[in-house]
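Example 3.2
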Amino acid sequence: MKNIIKQIFIKAKSNPKKIILADAHDPRIQAAAKIAQDEKIADIILLNQEYIQKNSKLAENLANNLFKLRQEKGLTLLAAKELITKPIYFGTMMVKDGLADGLVSGASSTTHDTFKPALQILKTAPNQKIVSSFFVMEFPNQKFGQEGIMFFADCGLNISPNSEILAEITNQTLASFKQLTGAVPKVALLSYSTNSSGTGESVDLVKQATEIVKTQHTDLIIEGEIQADAAINPLVSFQKNPESILGGKANILIFPDLNSGNIAYKLVERLANAKAYGPISQGIAKPINDLSRGCSIDDIVATIAITSVQTNTH
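Structure, written as tokens:
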């Protein structure tokens, strides 16, 4: 386990939060819950149908609150009562009503299943325009990123961002990186072109997003557009752009669209034997985080710790 991940665990243990696990029927979730509880990483609520049935009065209250929240969107009270029988809606409403600090789901459900209720119920945090996501990638080889840690964004939510949204994804990921690692962000906005070696709409979009971020953070180490190899390999960086300020030492990779980001993180995870924690949400009012359906127990425990630390800014 890298030092940065250890620091996240230490932060979580210093102020344990109440975290809901919404896939409580999954044996991996049950095992991770025990570890998180025993090691005082978080106060865990295992949310399943039995929990909902035992707390029927709470379910009724949450259904009424959901109805009030969504009736203008056409949700009926009957439909709200039906939705509350689903752990993800029950859990998200608990977070909304302050009965828990955050939620982790996705071990046996899709990213869409996890984030749809969050976007409907919690919405964006104050001063945030969008909700996006990132992965914490942990590499066996510490020469990559920050002590073997890199952030990849957005690999889970925004399908085809324009330059303004791509800039906002970058800004949110910067904030998340600083909060979780305390390290200096070094950002690469990726493309099939490095320093105008290629042309096209996608290249222009990445360039525009980079310029937007640069005007907002004048002292930021950032480069875009840049190819992936030049972003993470100092030799390739020098060959392709000797004047690069990144110098092949990026610790945050921003992908131009969901297609490239999702493909990249899955390939890196499997081919480089890297751990992928996430997708972790950012820009949302309270932390709701997803798991890959192929997640391990260790992945779940780490995501619980990350979620707990994120609550400190909400």
